[in-house]
Amino acid sequence: MPPLSDVRAFRTVLRESKNIIAIAGAGLSAASGIPTFRGAGGFWRTHNAVELATPEAFEENPSRVWQFYHYRREVVNKARPNPAHLALAMLSIPEHRQLVAPDANFTLITQNIDGLSTRALQQVDPGAEPTVIEMHGRLMETICTACGERKPNNDSPICPALAGTEDLVVNRDEAHIPLEQLPRCSAPCGGLLRPGVVWFGENILHAERIDRVIRVADLILVIGTSSVVYPAAGYAQEVSDNGGKVAVFNIEPAGEEEEQDDFYFLGPCEETLPMALFGRQSDTNP
C-alpha cells in the first residue's frame, strides 16, 4: 500500500502512541537558511565540503577546515528556529505534548549540528532542560586536540585571524592562516582546538542512548531526511520491524523504497510538520 498523507489518521496514531521518536536531518533547518553543502552545489573552491569534514583533512590543513567551519558558525549565528523546530520543541514539552499524545514519551534525535533544536526548546520554554540528542555534535562547541576538553564557544569570530574569512569562503577562496593563530584552548595546554562535531570516520555521539529509545519506539518521525539515507533508514526500519509506525516528512516524492512507510507528508517540513502534529501550518500553538 502506498504511504498515506492523511493528517487525521496520523494524529490518531500519534494520540495512541507511547514512545515517539524523531530523527531530523538537514531539511529541518533549510527554512532557517542553513545550507546542506551536499550535491553539485555543495562545493567550496575545488574541495567538496563533505571531504573537509574528516580528521585527515583537519590534520592536513587546519587553516582551510577552520575557515569552512567559521563560515558555518557565522551562518548559524544569524539563523533562527523555524516552525518545524518549534513544533518539535512543543512535542518535547509535556504540557503541550499531552494535548496530542497524552500518554507518550518523546525523544528528538538530530543529525544537525546547528543547535537550532535546542534553541527552539528554550524559546518555547526558557526553563526547559535541553533534551535533544545531537548525534553529530555541535558547531558552537570546540574540542581541544591536546587535552580533549569539550566546551561551548559562541564567539564571533572564534579567533581574530578568522574574522572576515567567511567572505572568502563564499567566493570559494581561502586565507593562509598560521597554525599558532588558529583557535587555541584556554586551558594551560594551549592546544589547537577543532570544531565540536562528528566527522566522517568518527563514531556518533550518544549511540547507546539512541539504541535504547529506538528499541522501544512505536512511532518514528523521519524529518528532513530521506528514509533511505542512513542512519535514518536504519532507525526507521528497526522501528517498523518492531511493529511501530513510520511517518516521513520530506520535500522529495516517495519512491518505491518508502512504500513500507505508514505516512509520507510531501513538502517543506516547516509547513507539513506543524500541520500534522498540531493541525496548524503557521501557528505552532495547539
Could you walk me through the main structural features you see in this protein, from its secondary elements to its overall organization?
The protein is built from 11 helices and 11 strands. Strands 5-4-1-9-10-11 form a 6-stranded parallel sheet, sandwiched between helices. A 3-stranded antiparallel sheet has the order 7-6-8. It has a two-stranded antiparallel sheet with strand order 2-3. Mean pLDDT is 90; it is low at 39-43 and 282-286. Strand 6 (137-144) and strand 7 form a beta hairpin. The chain is elongated, with a radius of gyration of 20 Å. Helix 5 (83-92) packs across helix 7 and helix 5 packs parallel to helix 11 (269-278). The chain is of the alpha/beta class. It folds into 2 domains: 1-33 and 82-136 and 203-286, 3-Layer(aba) Sandwich (Rossmann fold), CATH 3.40.50; 35-78 and 141-197, SIR2/SIRT2 'Small Domain' (2-Layer Sandwich). 34% of the residues lie in helices and 17% in strands.
